[in-house]
Design a protein that fits this description.
- A six-stranded parallel beta sheet has the order 2-1-3-4-5-10, with helices on both faces.
- It has helices at 15-26, 45-55, 70-75, 77-97, 135-155, 181-195, 215-228, 245-256, 280-285, 293-307, and strands at 7-10, 32-33, 59-62, 102-106, 159-164, 166-168, 199-203, 209-210, 212-214, 234-237, 243-244, 261-265, 274-275.
- With 313 residues, it is α/β, with parallel strands linked by helices.
- The structure holds NADP nicotinamide-adenine-dinucleotide phosphate.
- NADP nicotinamide-adenine-dinucleotide phosphate binds at residues 11, 13-17, 36-37, 40-43, 63-67, 83, 87, 106-108, 164, 166-167.
Length: 313
């Protein structure tokens, strides 16, 4: 990608889009096109067409989506399905019509069947039933991959799809009602330190294994794929390593410098025992994650303390 190429980054204020924006700016890209949801509703075909006709991006990074946790996904499945189908169909069709050189579509590991073997390989896509709680979201994300692949097959478009593992980092959601496990634990441990609480309760047994990728590493992987990868199907993006929630909690405790104890509440559900992506396809292309968990948690903590004006440790 030339430093002066016109790059449309959809979803630039989100966790993923924000990290990609930082990376593009660090690399010195001068023509990054952004619009907020309010300025450009990607569910509107008319608005998307007008935007592409006016702006003529050469590259498109699709990091906009209606995203949410289990509660939001299971309460509003029609909205999750409709919005994500519309966003993908409108942006991919306009990218084809206006001759975009390359498009990167972002999905999620929830596209894989609920009971697929671990680690999850790209070829497990569409081999079994999905997790029911986020099926609507997953179906829309699978449709987006299919759109990229069929536009490639029928029209020769260079549209690719990246499937990140669990992400964390600056811009993450720290609301305890809706946040993912890592920011939720980070906040709880930090607050325990600040208030002098002697224990922190962690939901579940602490035994499930999960993989975490620092979002700036994902941004680097996305730009690497745009430069160096072309082909159909999803490409998993992760570290290739997982750890127990117990180990994650202990790492957070160490980074925060909390001296109290962690209590694991086994009466709370554990969820699936393991979720790890097979990242051999990405690694064989020549990319590997660089930011270790401890460093990533430290950077996330620093961002949280600064952005939320949280009193320091
Ligand atoms: N977070 C994770 O752990 C994770 C893991 C794997 C994959 N992913 C994938 O990465 C992508 C982005 O996720 P994220 O976590 O960055 O989400 P996010 O923080 O919620 O950001 C989503 C972005 O999409 C924009 N958006 C939503 N609906 C829109 C619409 N109708 N029109 C225009 N813009 C719209 C929002 O714009 P405004 O800011 O203007 O409202 C926001 O910037 C998703 O495809 C998701 O599946 C995320």
């Amino acid at each position: 990608m030339d430093k002066h190429s016109r790059i449309y980054l959809a979803g630039h204020r989100g966790l993923v889009g924000g990290a990609i924006l930082r990376r593009l700016q660090q690399l010195g890209h001068t023509q990054i096109l952004t619009r907020t949801h309010r300025e450009l509703d990607l569910c509107s075909q008319v608005q998307v067409e007008q935007f592409f006709e006016q702006e003529r991006p050469a590259y498109v990074i699709l990091a906009a989506a209606r995203v949410g946790g289990i509660l939001a996904n299971s309460t509003y499945p029609a909205q999750f399905l409709y919005d994500n189908l519309m966003i993908a169909a409108n942006v991919i069709q306009a990218s084809y019509r206006y001759g975009v050189t390359k498009l990167l579509n972002l999905g999620s590991s929830c596209i894989y069947p609920k009971l697929a073997p671990q680690p999850l390989k790209e070829e497990y896509l569409l081999t079994g039933p999905l997790e029911p709680t986020n099926r609507a979201y997953a179906v829309a994300k699978i449709a987006a991959i299919e759109l990229c692949d069929h536009y490639r097959a029928q029209y020769g478009c260079d549209f690719i799809s990246a499937m990140p593992t669990n992400l964390y980092g600056p811009g993450d959601n720290f609301d305890l009602q809706t946040s993912h496990v890592l920011p939720a634990l980070l906040r709880k441990v930090l607050e325990a330190k600040q208030t002098g609480a002697t224990t922190v309760t962690v939901w579940g047994s602490g035994n499930p294994r999960r993989e975490f990728l620092y979002v700036d590493d994902l941004a680097a992987a996305c730009l690497f794929l745009l430069e160096h990868f072309s082909g159909p199907g999803p490409v998993n993006v992760g570290t290739g390593e997982d750890l127990r929630i117990r180990e994650l909690a202990l790492t957070i405790q160490e980074v925060v410098g909390y001296k109290g104890s962690l209590v694991f509440d086994s009466t709370k559900p554990d969820g699936t025992p393991r979720k790890l992506l097979d990242v051999s396809r990405l690694q064989q292309s020549g990319w590997q994650a660089e930011i270790g968990l401890k460093e990533g948690i430290g950077r996330t903590l620093a961002w949280y303390l600064a952005s939320a004006e949280v009193p320091g440790c």
